[in-house]
């Protein structure tokens, strides 16, 4: 089983949001030492919980501090931007870290409607997503666009012997179908849906797949997991994430709370959601978590899982990735 990392630069109560950005860079260095294959970064806007707003900037900082691990966006919310500008940014990143850059793109806004309109005033921007993906691929790979296209003869620089690997991200059947149609690698956001629709999306992707960017279906799944030195400690740390997930159901967003401050009275519906969340959670010792991860990978017939972990304590987050890597037998540097 191949393991990778997704980090979202989560804000934590009692610390400045800028600390979350620096902790993400430190975490990337840590995960490289413990043998993870990729380190991906998400994009969200005007959200007090997740403050990673510019993955391409963070990727440059991480590229300067690492030597082996692949670095990627998970992802760039393409409808907000010019595909040509995104291609240029990622060609620069590939020049900084040749052959180590993943360009994950998604259609979701990663923001509320008002914020989305500030990023791109066109309310129908997402309708052009498939065309943007085609353009982005051509510019990233140094291929020309079709006759009659306004961008024909225009090239994204710097050009080199390597190029970013394009990924389609999704949490529904739409992205799966598009990834299959274009022959792209596909990543399903299991942590967003708590697994709902994951198996169906992967099946749809494989069914729709035709050779394109890759010759055969290539998929991974982003899943939430947390390990600690004891099962009791892992569940204690999980209280911060648990509170954030329950709050999100009713539109409450804020910095991640310490475990000791996370408890609050829940309504009957919230309590039912909390119990369901716990029953599915990949929480425990390193060995327990890896056992659950392996079972998921086998059931979905995939070779790679991308692990996302939220903890209020940055050291606990780093320890979680360390324990999972050791239990999985990853090749530490």
Please describe what this structure looks like.
This protein is of the alpha/beta class and 333 residues long. The protein has one domain: Luciferase-like domain (TIM Barrel, Alpha-Beta Barrel). Helices cover 45% and strands 15% of the residues. It contains 12 helices and 9 strands. The chain has helices at 17-33, 55-65, 83-96, 113-119, 129-141, 173-182, 190-193, 198-208, 231-249, 268-280, 286-300, 314-328; strands at 2-7, 38-41, 70-77, 101-106, 165-170, 186-189, 219-227, 282-284, 304-308. An 8-stranded parallel β-barrel has the order 1-2-3-4-5-6-7-9, surrounded by 8 helices. Helix 2 (55-65) packs parallel to helix 3 and helix 9 packs across helix 10 (268-280). The model has no long low-confidence stretch (mean pLDDT 96). This is LLM class flavin-dependent oxidoreductase. Residues 1-299 form the Luciferase-like domain. Pfam families: Bac_luciferase. To bacterial alkanal monooxygenase alpha and beta chains.
Please name the defining characteristics of this protein.
TIM Barrel, 333 residues, 9 strands, Luciferase-like_sf, globular, eight-stranded parallel barrel, single chain, alpha/beta
Largest sheet features: 8 strands, parallel, barrel
Helical stretch tally: 12
Strand content: 15-25%
Elements, N to C (H/E): EHEHEHEHHEHEHHEHHEHEH
Low-confidence segments, given as residue ranges, are none
Query: What is the CATH class designation?
Result: Alpha Beta
What is the mean pLDDT? Answer: 96
Report Rg.
19 Å
Domain Luciferase-like: 1-299
Pfam family, one: Bac_luciferase
Organism: Ramlibacter alkalitolerans
InterPro entries: Bact_Lucif_Oxidored, CmoO-like, Luciferase-like_dom, Luciferase-like_sf
